[in-house]
UniProtKB/TrEMBL annotation:
<dbReference type="InterPro" id="IPR041698">
    <property type="entry name" value="Methyltransf_25"/>
</dbReference>
<feature type="domain" description="Methyltransferase">
    <location>
        <begin position="3"/>
        <end position="97"/>
    </location>
</feature>
<dbReference type="InterPro" id="IPR029063">
    <property type="entry name" value="SAM-dependent_MTases_sf"/>
</dbReference>
<dbReference type="Pfam" id="PF13649">
    <property type="entry name" value="Methyltransf_25"/>
</dbReference>
<protein>
    <recommendedName>
        <fullName>Methyltransferase domain-containing protein</fullName>
    </recommendedName>
</protein>
<keyword id="KW-0808">Transferase</keyword>
């Protein structure tokens, strides 16, 4: 199974997912995050790699990610959610593939940090746009959202 970890940061989720036997590419537009991810997880062998990549860019000088079965956005969807990302996503996800989002619910967050969560209205839009939607509570205000189709 191939996985794309969008906004992978220091690559913790990418590495954990590779430990489960999946082939994972972590992408982030932060040079320091990619450097830290490579540094932290370089010894793990062929199932894991990290690339500098802006997932909302109109054009990129580096190759786009290969199509994958699963795209994960842990605490990053709220930053990359844009029409451009959705267009890219359509190409990166294989037919039947899943987008998994881990996010806080913005409406339950304190004023001033709500941009770090996904709004309930946006969640409703995603429910309308995807055929299969599962939302489950992780802990506190954090939810997992699995979207397919
Ligand atoms: C809150 S951090 C989450 C990092 C990681 N997913 C985690 O759970 O630890 C959000 C990450 O998204 C990345 N990011 C934001 N916008 C991005 C974009 N357009 N393209 C790629 N990465 C982006 C940031 O650089 C940052 O590393």
């Amino acid at each position: 199974m191939r996985v794309l970890d969008v906004g992978c940061g220091k690559g913790e989720l990418s590495a954990r997912t590779a430990d489960w036997g999946m082939r994972v590419t972590g992408v982030d537009f932060s040079l320091s995050a990619i450097a830290a991810a490579r540094d932290a997880h370089s010894g793990r062998g062929g199932l894991l790699d990290f690339h500098l990549y802006d997932v909302t860019a109109t054009r990129s000088f580096v190759p786009a990610p290969e199509p994958v079965d699963l795209v994960v956005c842990r605490l990053s969807f709220e930053f990359v959610d844009s029409p451009r990302f959705m267009v890219h996503l359509g190409r990166w996800l294989k037919p039947g593939g899943v987008l998994h989002i881990t996010s806080a619910i913005a409406d339950r967050m304190p004023y001033g940090v709500a941009h770090r969560g996904i709004a309930i209205a946006r969640l409703a839009e995603l429910r309308d746009a995807w055929k299969h939607v599962t939302v489950y509570r992780l802990h506190d205000n954090l939810v997992g959202i699995a979207l397919r189709g």
